[in-house]
Design brief:
Elements (H helix, E strand, L loop, with lengths): L17 E9 L9 E6 L4 H6 L2 E9 L4 H19 L6 H22 L9 E2 L1 E7 L2 E7 L3 E6 L2 E4 L6 H7 L5 H6 L19 E6 L5 E5 L1 H4 L4 H8 L5 H15 L5 E10 L3 E4 L2 E4 L2
Antiparallel strand pairs: 1-11, 2-3, 3-4, 3-5, 5-6, 6-9, 7-8, 7-10, 10-11, 12-13
Length: about 280
Amino acid sequence: MASNTAFNIGPARTSMLDVEFAQFSDNGRVRDHNEDTLGHALPATPEQVRTQGWLFALADGVGGHELGEVASRTAVESLLAGFREATGEEAHAALLPRLVRDANERVYETGLAAGPRSGASMATTLVACAVRFDRAVVAHVGDSRCYLIRLGHATLLTRDHTVAGEQERLGLISAREAAKSETRHVLSRSLGSDLFVNVETSENQVFTGDVLLLCSDGLHGSVSAQEMAAAAGHGADLNAAARKLAALANERDGSDNISVQLIRVRGVERVGMYRGRPYRLR
């Protein structure tokens, strides 16, 4: 598990997708251990930039006695392993939800193998973002989020799979009521709680200068989207921004683990699609 760590990659390339990133995870001010897991799979060659791209993942485990940590780690490790083994022929919009479903099965089976001690309490959220060409595909289950920061504004790309979130989507309560509801942290969907899971997926075009932000509810529960955009946008140092956001969450609450990944797009390769295959646009 990454904790109090940050990473970024080398110098910018031209004529193809290029990104830099940082990640940071903190226990918070109350908990003595961290049940969040962060992970990434990076292309090793320019050829893999086009055939595979980048993958970033963040999971927030649910369950006591360290079972949440096991669940989140199992989910991320399964997802990354599947991504690295993929041939690159499968579109990310199809690949990512399939890998998340595989991760769900792995977490579910791990919970069963743990015996009666775990029961149905071993589960995790998961948000994953795969970036290739000029597209970012986001797949998620639970209430860990992904934002797109562009021109100083943060747009939420995911929907919280919580009881309050489902009630809001059904029109039973307002957005303001959902934000204050006692069920806003009660998951309606998670990995590992059942053998089958519904994965929500979206595909988004990205441009040079965009920042993708993945986070657990320990961050977005106390830091607003506007504050995220202010900290991570406008060319900010991503390592410093990640730590600044975690410090702000700790200052205001700190009752939960706090995790964030920041991915800045430094260059894109514009492509079109013909019969499911990409071609370069000039």
